[in-house]
Structure formats: C-alpha cells, structure tokens
Amino acid sequence: MTVVPFVDLKAQFAAIENEARAAIDRVLASQRLILGPEVESLEREIAAYSACAHAIGVSSGTDALLVSLMALGVGPGDEVITTAYSFFATAGVIVRLGAKPVFADIEPATFNMDPALAAAAVTPRTKAIVPVHLYGQCAEMDPILDVASAHGLGVVEDAAQAIGATYKDRPAGSLGDIGCFSFFPTKNLGALGDGGMVVTNDRALAERIGCLRQHGASPKFHHPLVGGNFRLDAIQAAVLGVKLKYLNGWTGGRRLNADLYDKKLAAAGLPESVLRIPQVRQTRHVYHQYVIRARRRDALGEHLRQQGIGCGIYYPLPLHLQECFAALGYQAGDMPVAEAAAGESLALPMYPELSVDQIDTVVAAVTGFLGDGG
Ligand SMILES: *Cc1c(COP(=O)(O)O)cnc(C)c1O
C-alpha cells in the first residue's frame, strides 16, 4: 500500500487536463509538429520568466548542456570545471565533446559546488565552469562568476532542477553566460516527454545555439557548423505553455511543504549527527527535491518504503567515481564531502499537491525511526 508516493504526476495533470488537451488539439489541427509558432511562443515566455533576452527550445536538458558547451567551443584539450555531485548528464556532455571534466567538491550545507575549490581547479586549459543548482537551490554564483571573469571562462548554469529559483533576486539561468533547463516530466516544469531550453543574454551565442540545434545549418542545407538534431516538439511546447502559467503557484506549494517539513522535523529535536534538514543560503529555493541527511540512511529508506512512503537517493555515487570516468584517475577520498553526501542523503516526497496529512505521515516515520536509535 502506497501512503505517500515519491512523485505524483497524476494529481498535477488532473488539474490542467482540459487546458492541456486543448493545447494538444491545437497542434494536431495545425500539423506544425517541430519548432514553429508553439515553440517560439514558449521561448518568448521562458526568456521573460528567466530575465533573459533569448531562449532556444531544445530536445532535453542534456542536449541544452551539450549544445551550450558546443557553442562555447569546448572540445578536445579543454578542461571544464563542474561539481562532483550531480546527475550524470552534467559531466557526460563534457566527455562527449572530447573535453575533460575537472570535479570540484561540494559545500556540505547546500550540496552545491564549493566556489573556492572551483577556483583552485583552474588551469591554463580551463575553458568553462558548469555550476549546478542542485535540488532547486542556486549555487553560490558570485564567487564563481568572479573566477570565470578573472580567467575569461564561460559559465553554463545547469539549472535543470531550478527553474524559478533566484540568487540574490536574479533568476536561475540568467546568472552565467548560458542557462540550461530540463522539462523531463518529473522536473518542476515537466513536459509530456523529453524537452529542454537554453537561455542567454548574449545574442551571438543565441544565434550559434539556434544554428547548432538544426545540424549547424544556416541557411537550410548550408552548414557553417557541425550541429545536431536538438529540436523541441510543438506538442511539448504547447503543453509547457499551459503549465508555465501555474509554475509560480506550484513553486509556492513546494516551498510551503518544505517549510512544514523543516518545522516538523526540527520539532523532533534530534541531534545533527542523526538528522540534518536542508540548509538554505541567500537564494529562493524551489525544492525540486527535499533532501535530508540521516544516520543509517539505507535502513531509514527501507523503513519508509515498508511504510508505503516513497523516497530516493540523489545521488548514490558521485561523478568522479563513475566507472566510465575511471580513466580520469580519481580515487575514493578525493571528494570527501560529495562522498559523504552520497552515503547520507535521502530525498523525501516533494510536490505541490502533498497534503499536510501526508507530510505528517512522512515526518512521523522518519523521526520515529531515527529517534528509536535507527
Ligand atoms: C534532469 C537533469 C539533467 C538532464 O535533463 P534531461 O532533460 O533529463 O536530459 C541535467 N542535469 C541535472 C542536474 C538534472 O537534474
């Protein structure tokens, strides 16, 4: 019996079903299925939402990152500094371009890239920095931007989890040279399949990314660049346009639920060595995930699942220890903070539709288990 599912996409779809079906019907009637007016309209809306002059709809968050690094000219011989603790795509795109990911360990409080370690990782071969706004909280961007401007490096924000987040009142995606969003169905703004968006204030980069998105063609059948097929479907854009109107309300729901979790978990009075609730620093956190750190995390996760409560681990293995990156030469112990996070972090159910009863159920199960010496 599932008491509290980890994610609940059906609840959200029920609330917008009629509007979504009308938007899909509009695309079916037009038979403009790839790019076209639906995608252009979403691009204008996401650009405005992120306080950026340009937005380019793409096929996924992964392709958003890939095409952004391509536009910056990242290739063989280059190094790209990124965090050791993220979804695989953040580092995978660097390696796919023939460049070398150089990992920086994270800050223990926020799970985000430690700016001092990123600064220390700069070499003459460094071309770009890819900070990740993990779980919906912006990385500590000002010192990262300072390092980038001191060394002439590009900054690509992996904002896949952070649409709507802000850092010192500036929106995620507008902080670096290029920002990347994912519309994977479980992200805060999710499509009915894969999708993504690139935002930037740099017109030349926007033109380059638009060109790379269609095999580097400009004009059609003439290729100044080698790009790929990174296009966004019109059906996805039409549905995303419907959902975007609700995003601020949904984000408000996530933030309210996070606040309830914070207060109710803290009320149990467990020591930090047993349970740590998320720390927030000078950002508007949009809680793509609500991640606690817990003693005996695996046993706690098992206990929750037995009670019918969903939970997840983001991420059980840091990037520098992935098998496919063995040739980079990293060892266990190289990124102690990320490695500790991989052993202790547990994501609890988090979505706008979560009820107070469900939150109470989760909190009781977590604090009951940990309070009993779990
Ligand atoms: C989801 C995600 C991506 C990849 O996005 P897709 O749309 O699934 O390709 C990249 N980075 C992070 C941090 C993500 O969470």
Into how many domains do the coordinates divide? 2
Unreliable runs, pLDDT <50, ≥5 residues?
Answer: none
Strand arrangement across the biggest beta sheet: 1-9-8-5-4-2-3
Radius of gyration: 21 Å
- Here the CATH topology of the largest domain equals Aspartate Aminotransferase, domain 2
Categorize the overall geometry. Answer: globular
Mean pLDDT: 97
Beta strands, count: 13
Structure explained in plain terms:
By secondary structure, the protein is an alpha/beta fold. It has two domains: about 10-245, Aspartate Aminotransferase, domain 2, CATH 3.40.640; about 250-370, Alpha-Beta Complex (Aspartate Aminotransferase, domain 1), CATH 3.90.1150. About 40% of the residues lie in helices and about 15% in strands. The strands form three sheets. The chain has a seven-stranded mixed sheet, sandwiched between helices. A three-stranded antiparallel sheet has the order 7-6-11, with no helix packed on it. The longest helix is centred in the last third of the chain and has 34 residues, at about 235-265. Pyridoxal-5'-phosphate (PLP) binds near residues 89, 132, 158 and 160.
Offer a quick outline of the entry.
This protein is an alpha/beta fold. The chain is built from 11 helices and 13 strands. A hairpin with a 2-residue loop joins strand 6 and strand 7.
Keywords:
374 residues, alpha/beta, Aspartate Aminotransferase, domain 2, Aspartate Aminotransferase, domain 1, 3-stranded antiparallel beta sheet
